[in-house]
Amino acid sequence: MTAEHITAEELQNLDEAKVSVNEHVLGTKKLYIESYGCQMNFADSEVVASILRTNGYSTTANLEEADLVLLNTCAIRDNAEQKVRHRLSALNKNKKANPGLKIGVLGCMAERLKTKFLEEEKMVDLVVGPDAYRDLPNLLQEVESGHKAVNVFLSREETYADISPIRLDSNGVSAFISIMRGCDNMCSFCVVPYTRGRERSRDPHSIYDEAKGLFEQGYKEVTLLGQNVDSYKWSSETEKYNFANLLEKVASIHPDLRVRFSTSHPKDITDEVLHTIKKYDNICNYIHLPAQSGSSRILSLMNRTYSREWYLERIHKIREVLGEDCGVSHDMIAGFCTETEEDHQQTLSLMDEVVFDYGYMFFYSERPGTPAAKNLKDDVSLEDKKRRVNEIIDKQRQHSAIKNQMSVGKVFRVLIEGESKKSREDFAGRNDQNKVIVFPRKTYKKGDYVNVFVNSCTSGTLIGEIVD
Ligand code: SAH
Ligand code: SF4
Ligand code: F3S
């Protein structure tokens, strides 16, 4: 989704608002699972569904028939947590109507609040952190015998490498693959190192096997996921892999398997990665490179460990190696501790220098226990935070329109992902640069690659027609 479809308020809710509800048909007991937050959480829910399937649970999209409801939660901003609190109050009614219903909280909010969750939300039976999902069958037994169950141990090794995820919510074309877990970066605003633990990389052979298996099942695109994919590293006695090596290994599966990845970190993205993207047509020309701020002073307080100049140099390098056509998007935080109008102007001017294709924009939300919460003052008023994020969104809207306009008159190779949201007569898919294109379906089907001529655009979408 791009910024221009949504208001500031909705944007703030963007990653929290996505909820997946899924259906599967095996087992006797019914699991209803909802995921909030980032793609890693959605990928984790697929691991959880797999673990519970071997324990007799099939997934259902119908809350009314569920024996177990799991919420896979996000703690990145306060409103992400509020969303889960509201959902739990609503679930209270279901529990009253069906006292046998068990309710569990998974993911980052479970990890942050631990047993406090059980004190604060009386209807919750089960609290499980992101590294403890293998223990779910045991914990559920405890719950069945009338106790509350908690496991929030973080691991230094767990990658769930051997678990074959059950693809929930899948369009059958595109799938996520977790390549690493945790984060060691300690950006001062961020709760993730506390909720996801230490960074660890998954065995590249299991990643390759998973991607190959997906391609053999008909999938045409995989997105490799990690909080900082550029710090992927894995070695055995005979082999050594960095992220560029892993990308190459996955890209070599088949030219028709598209490879995407997220998230890149400006301090770690290497020229080797850029050259690997260039070498393989099926590695998409698109990089999500969160900036967070355009002010070096603020970046330093955020502990991002790069400056404005470093960030701009990386953008310059991306365009030098991959050309102006490489899609680049950003994350930006408005109103971080001590941010002045001058700092804010620097964020806007960074955006002017780069002209991003799109972005995800938030205002700062203090997270308990983080370095910023401990050492810095959350001193920008809510009013200023909201005004600044709106100015950032307005600028991004203008830039996205410019970038989309530049695509008009060009032909792109598009992977058809399914029907367009607005019309059954149209298909929607994405091009190499991650831009959504809508076009009349003709005789093609989901999962086909087609060449599409772009004849017009809205601020968020390209519109075109298939050229044979
Ligand atoms: N690992 C990724 C970011 C993951 S969190 C990276 O380093 O880029 C996704 C985004 O949420 C971040 O990029 C940041 O823009 C935003 N974010 C994280 N913590 C936040 C907070 N406390 N307040 C507001 N936005 C936050
Ligand atoms: Fe959070 Fe920074 Fe790690 Fe991203 S790199 S998850 S922002 S600590
Ligand atoms: Fe949220 Fe956890 Fe992802 S805090 S953004 S679900 S890593």
Automatic annotation (TrEMBL):
<dbReference type="InterPro" id="IPR038135">
    <property type="entry name" value="Methylthiotransferase_N_sf"/>
</dbReference>
<feature type="binding site">
    <location>
        <position position="108"/>
    </location>
    <ligand>
        <name>[4Fe-4S] cluster 1</name>
    </ligand>
</feature>
<dbReference type="GO" id="GO:0005829">
    <property type="term" value="C:cytosol"/>
</dbReference>
<keyword id="KW-0963">Cytoplasm</keyword>
<keyword id="KW-0408">Iron</keyword>
<keyword id="KW-0411">Iron-sulfur</keyword>
<feature type="domain" description="Radical SAM core">
    <location>
        <begin position="169"/>
        <end position="403"/>
    </location>
</feature>
<comment type="similarity">
    <text>Belongs to the methylthiotransferase family. MiaB subfamily.</text>
</comment>
<dbReference type="GO" id="GO:0046872">
    <property type="term" value="F:metal ion binding"/>
</dbReference>
<protein>
    <recommendedName>
        <fullName>tRNA-2-methylthio-N(6)-dimethylallyladenosine synthase</fullName>
        <ecNumber>2.8.4.3</ecNumber>
    </recommendedName>
</protein>
<comment type="subunit">
    <text>Monomer.</text>
</comment>
<dbReference type="InterPro" id="IPR002792">
    <property type="entry name" value="TRAM_dom"/>
</dbReference>
<dbReference type="InterPro" id="IPR020612">
    <property type="entry name" value="Methylthiotransferase_CS"/>
</dbReference>
<dbReference type="Pfam" id="PF01938">
    <property type="entry name" value="TRAM"/>
</dbReference>
<feature type="domain" description="TRAM">
    <location>
        <begin position="405"/>
        <end position="468"/>
    </location>
</feature>
<dbReference type="InterPro" id="IPR007197">
    <property type="entry name" value="rSAM"/>
</dbReference>
<feature type="binding site">
    <location>
        <position position="187"/>
    </location>
    <ligand>
        <name>[4Fe-4S] cluster 2</name>
    </ligand>
</feature>
<feature type="domain" description="MTTase N-terminal">
    <location>
        <begin position="29"/>
        <end position="145"/>
    </location>
</feature>
<dbReference type="InterPro" id="IPR006638">
    <property type="entry name" value="Elp3/MiaA/NifB-like_rSAM"/>
</dbReference>
<dbReference type="InterPro" id="IPR058240">
    <property type="entry name" value="rSAM_sf"/>
</dbReference>
<dbReference type="InterPro" id="IPR006463">
    <property type="entry name" value="MiaB_methiolase"/>
</dbReference>
<feature type="binding site">
    <location>
        <position position="38"/>
    </location>
    <ligand>
        <name>[4Fe-4S] cluster 1</name>
    </ligand>
</feature>
<dbReference type="Pfam" id="PF00919">
    <property type="entry name" value="UPF0004"/>
</dbReference>
<dbReference type="InterPro" id="IPR023404">
    <property type="entry name" value="rSAM_horseshoe"/>
</dbReference>
<feature type="binding site">
    <location>
        <position position="74"/>
    </location>
    <ligand>
        <name>[4Fe-4S] cluster 1</name>
    </ligand>
</feature>
<feature type="binding site">
    <location>
        <position position="190"/>
    </location>
    <ligand>
        <name>[4Fe-4S] cluster 2</name>
    </ligand>
</feature>
<dbReference type="GO" id="GO:0035597">
    <property type="term" value="F:tRNA-2-methylthio-N(6)-dimethylallyladenosine(37) synthase activity"/>
</dbReference>
<dbReference type="Pfam" id="PF04055">
    <property type="entry name" value="Radical_SAM"/>
</dbReference>
<keyword id="KW-0479">Metal-binding</keyword>
<comment type="function">
    <text>Catalyzes the methylthiolation of N6-(dimethylallyl)adenosine (i(6)A), leading to the formation of 2-methylthio-N6-(dimethylallyl)adenosine (ms(2)i(6)A) at position 37 in tRNAs that read codons beginning with uridine.</text>
</comment>
<dbReference type="GO" id="GO:0051539">
    <property type="term" value="F:4 iron, 4 sulfur cluster binding"/>
</dbReference>
<dbReference type="InterPro" id="IPR005839">
    <property type="entry name" value="Methylthiotransferase"/>
</dbReference>
<feature type="binding site">
    <location>
        <position position="183"/>
    </location>
    <ligand>
        <name>[4Fe-4S] cluster 2</name>
    </ligand>
</feature>
<keyword id="KW-0949">S-adenosyl-L-methionine</keyword>
<keyword id="KW-0819">tRNA processing</keyword>
<keyword id="KW-0004">4Fe-4S</keyword>
<keyword id="KW-0808">Transferase</keyword>
<dbReference type="InterPro" id="IPR013848">
    <property type="entry name" value="Methylthiotransferase_N"/>
</dbReference>
